[in-house]
Amino acid sequence: MNEALVSALIIFSAYLAGSVPFAYLLGRLRGFDVRDHGSGNVGATNLTRLAGRRWGFAAFFLDFGKGMLAVAAAAWLAPDQIGTLLPMLAAAAVVAGHVWPVWLGFKGGKGMATSLGALLVLSPWATILAAVVWAAVFLLCRYVSLASMAAAVMLPVGDYLAARRFETEQFSAVRLLLLGMIALFIVWRHRQNLRRLLDGSEYRF
Q: What is the spatial distance between Cα 104 and Cα 4, in angstroms, rounded to a whole number?
């Protein structure tokens, strides 16, 4: 099979995997549509508010897992000519699928959990540093949105530090650019939360 076709199928499959709306499906198991309650967001945070932490954690780890598996599969299946570029494209595709799921009229979640899962494969140390930042900010202020934005900003910073300063990973300008774009995108997806943080009306856990 043509390598370009194989690559396109892998990217499309990553998008479809990202489109699986786990928070929505788990909400349906509890008897409600997560889009009609709370913030209306199809993500783990909103499900936590509506159904409790066990259900929210389940959605988070399922979203995390689909990101990780999509990129790991792309890395394993990548044609030689595409090399390390295909996993990066798969990471973008799986996050896009979560944010714009075909099954829910292209209205999905904000992409943090899926991004972390995808990027754990691409840049483990950056993802670990971002997770540490997320936990520290959340424990200090109890705002999931602020913790998510801080972790997103840490992704490209952590990747640069891991490659240039700690030398734990091989530096890749393309990967750094991808992480920067994902970070900006996650912050943009949280723009309503940022407005609520500024006016003091944001939900605190």
A: 29
Closest CA to 73 of 58, 94, 56: 94
Are 60 and 145 found together in one domain?
no
Range of the domain at 154: 123-205
- Single pTM value for the model: 0.89
Structure tokens at 74: 């792309």
| Largest interatomic CA distance in the chain | 56
Residue 1: is its pLDDT beyond 70?
A: no
DSSP single-letter state for residue 105: T
Helices 112-122, 124-141: axis angle to 10 degrees equals 150
Residues 6+ apart with CB under 8 A from 88: 122, 174, 175, 178
Q: What type of residue sits at position 69?
A: L
Stated as kind and residue range, the H or E segment containing 8 is helix 3-18
Residues 6+ apart with CB under 8 A from 14: 70, 71, 73, 74, 89, 90, 91, 93, 94, 97
Total count of domains within the chain:
2
Q: CA-CA distance, 194 to 186, in Å (whole number)?
A: 12
pLDDT single digits (tens) 40-94: 999 999 999 999 999 999 999 999 999 999 999 998 987 665 557 899 999 999 9
Report which residue type is found at 39.
Answer: S
